[in-house]
């Protein structure tokens, strides 16, 4: 764009839209395949996040406790998210790049580590495949648009949060809080998924809804029914999609969580006292609302 004095101004917004237009000009099969492959690569990294982020957090918390208690017992820090190459969790052997190709290496190696021949958990290719499939679904739904790019980020963050919560009943602030602020920022500056008023009300209502349930349950039973991470995750979903989707998300997550919890207790013969993570069901319900939320809200309002 040319200024009045003859200078040139680069319109980054127009450049960004041209980039998305170029992607949309690709045949749908090519675009979908490219996003699927991207999802496989991102899923491989999310496996690293799911394993290493909690280990780093637990290490930091132990260090803080030792500092408060004045205990001088240094502890080696676990590897960061990108500071060290992937390695076998059993024999600690470094995994070569050709043994770390998403899905392909797991199949070629016969689902076993090349060094120690111990089985490789099915969860690693599962996370990669789920990430790829959901990423492709997002782009099929939104197209190569700013909404589609933002929805990919939300999808990847929800997958990482789900894996960590399944393993540790923990939803890290390092995921939920940036997700909340990002949702508010995107709706404030771009209005991608909701108005800024709806997003702000969604963040407040999302947090207070589960916060109220938590304290009411604790008042009645004397026990804590969920963690604060669940409040923050629902607040983040409200910040992204507005307050209108919150009843649908809560209802869907509660129903699926209740059915899954009963099934898990029956299958594993565990008592109801064993905690079951609620975050994965919130994340799944939030992703469903991201794709079909408008239709679900319209149907809910109609009823």
What this model shows, in words?
The chain starts with 11 loop residues before the first helix and ends with a helix. The longest helix is centred in the N-terminal third of the chain and has 41 residues. The N terminus is likely disordered. The chain has 10 helices and no strands. Helix content is 68%, strand content 0%. With 303 residues, it is mainly α.
Determine the mean pLDDT: 86
Give the termini separation.
Answer: 50 Å
**Quaternary status:** single chain
What percentage of the residues does DSSP assign to strands (E)?
under 5%
Tell me the total number of β-strands: 0
Question: Nearest-angstrom radius of gyration?
Answer: 22 Å
Helix fraction by DSSP (H/I, runs of at least 4): 55-70%
Keywords summarizing the entry:
disordered N terminus, mainly alpha, 303 residues, single chain
List the SSEs and their pairings.
Blueprint: H1 12-24, H2 28-68, H3 104-108, H4 123-142, H5 146-168, H6 173-189, H7 196-221, H8 228-241, H9 246-268, H10 279-302
Summarize the structure.
The protein is mostly helical and 303 residues long.
